[in-house]
Automatic annotation (TrEMBL):
It comes from the Bacteria. SUPFAM superfamilies: GroES-like, NAD(P)-binding Rossmann-fold domains. InterPro entries: ADH-like_N, ER, GroES-like_sf, Lipid_raft_assoc_Zn_ADH, NAD(P)-bd_dom_sf. Coiled coil: none annotated. This is NADPH:quinone reductase. Residues 14-335 form the Enoyl reductase (ER) domain. GO terms for molecular function: oxidoreductase activity. It holds the Pfam family ADH_zinc_N_2.
Amino acid sequence: MSETMKAVRLHAFGGPEVLTYEDAPRPEIQPGEVLVRVRAVGLNPPDWYLRDGYRALPPEWRPDADFPLILGTDISGVVEATAADVTRFRAGDEVYGMLRFPEGVMTGSGAYAEYVSAPAAHLAHKPAGLDHIHAAAAPMSLLTAWQFLVEPGHDAANPFQDVPHAPVELEGRTVLVNGAGGGVGHMAAQVAKMKGARVIAVASARNAAKLGEFGVDQFIDYRETVVEEVVREADLVLDAVGGPRMERFLEVIRPGGALFLVNPLGFEGHAAAARRGISVSSTQVRSSGAQLAQLATLLDRRTVEVVIDSVFPLSDASRAHRRVAEGGIQGKIVLTVC
């Protein structure tokens, strides 16, 4: 096997143009790891945040990168080799996973490449009924929805608050998902529906048909309707968008309800939430091969479906990132690796 591979690397932070498709050393596996021949890579917000140098963060929080680095966490592929202490996988197995997250958030987890070394604990066998494109699109988005709404699956300290995140009862409750057309949002809407909730989906009009297929009970086009003017007494709001004015969702939640923030940075409504008895919570999604093994059945049976916005070859990663900048993404963007 060649000691080199094709990869997309960063030699400096910046726009999509800094993504360079080039030869790179093929990774070596360490104890507990698997070498995966990558077939597809799912794109996620941490990819473009790191590419840009996390400029939205205070300077003291930004990465001190050791260039070159390789972006990406979500992969689907075929096991090429395993470390001697790995028994769950063997060469030829089809696997998928979210690698080294959040520990690789500032350094890159190596997925934009023909090969990646992956902790075996972060992998699961790929759902047999899914192709590599759809399998690669699932991990971060589905794990985020699951860890917020159903089961965190870990006891690591919460970087966003002093107490652990605790999901709430969903069956028979009204759940509003803001950003229901995006990667996390379309998964969260399906998970909440699967768990017996009445689901209100907030997204742009182009997402209405697909979310209707998922069985949401009410669709709101945020471009035409102000959510807080038409919704009251929701039990839970999951905001998958973030940004300014997240506290406006407190107006749609009943006293004693909950607001879950996928990106809580900038939220300014803690005092108002406390006055109304609304719990505000967030958590950091974490790699979990065990949860992906559990969720594979849902994906295989199409209980939860992955929506694909667009697909680009690995060599066109910069074009894929430009697609991100265009906005209006439906579901996930995926890179394919020949």
